[in-house]
Amino acid sequence: MVSLNILLFCFVVKSTLGSDLLCINRGGTCQDDSISCPGGYVSNHCSGAANRRCCLPSTSSGHCQDDSMTCHVGIYVSGLCSGASNRRCCTQVKDTGSCNNVKIISRDSWGARDPKTISQEHLPVDLFFIHHTEGPSCTDTATCISIMKGIQNFHMDDRDWSDIGYSFLVGEDGNVYEGRGWHRVGAHTQGYNSRSLAVSVMGNYMNHLPNEKALAAVKALIQCGVDNGYISHHYRLYGHRDAGSTNCPGTTLYNLIRTWPHYSTISLH
Ligand SMILES: [Zn+2]
């Protein structure tokens, strides 16, 4: 055990000095270790002062297996299993990020089905896309949850995708609903899924805007992603229609986000 610790320490010093990458790659967040962290802190994963440590995602279960096998319940975390480096911990992720000013309803909370397969997103992403669902909107949590389940069933059963397509969804109840979350590649913006995250506002915004609560939730979610190191500080914001032939995220919502500070006029094509 002692030699393993020394080995890990050496690796850390050599490879990630001055960077939070090791922590981010384990799905964690670098923060002051006086803040409570249900998943536990590990040292030498974060830049800065010694008390700035890596808060790992809280996990309810995990098992060690060859990482060429699909990890159905969550993501692979390195450094937790003995043996070869491809023997990694398939961990159930509960982490939705520690966000200010917005509530994220986790997959467990809204009763999501398990994904069929998972690919891990390389973070931080430099692109962020905004969508609308073009379906019903919702102003109370119970209705939003029933819409979430309907969208997940549609994406998994009719479209035959591995999971609900979007990274996150937002309701006019002012909540964010976790889709694939921060750590997984989504199915939302063809050609850009492996380098972006995306939020979809539940409703159809061709002719009117989402309410203020929903718009505030979208902005707070993006800020949360930046603060946690999931989205680059220099991210470029787009509407879905900037990346392909679609009306998404609706003309009225699209015209609004074009006024937001990170909206990019750099062409994606
Ligand atoms: Zn879209």
UniProtKB/TrEMBL annotation:
Task: Write down the superkingdom of origin.
Answer: Eukaryota
Keywords linked to the UniProt accession: Signal
Respond yes or no to whether keyword Signal is given for this record: yes
Q: Which residues form the Peptidoglycan recognition protein family domain?
A: 102-244
Where in this chain does the record put each N-acetylmuramoyl-L-alanine amidase domain?
110-250
Q: Which residues form the signal peptide?
A: 1-18
CDD domains associated with the record: PGRP
Cross-referenced InterPro entries, in alphabetical order? Answer: Amidase/PGRP_sf, Amidase_domain, PGRP, PGRP_domain_met/bac
PANTHER family with a match to the protein in the record? PEPTIDOGLYCAN RECOGNITION PROTEIN, PEPTIDOGLYCAN-RECOGNITION PROTEIN LC-RELATED
Q: Which family does it belong to?
A: Belongs to the N-acetylmuramoyl-L-alanine amidase 2 family.
Query: What name does this protein carry?
Result: Uncharacterized protein
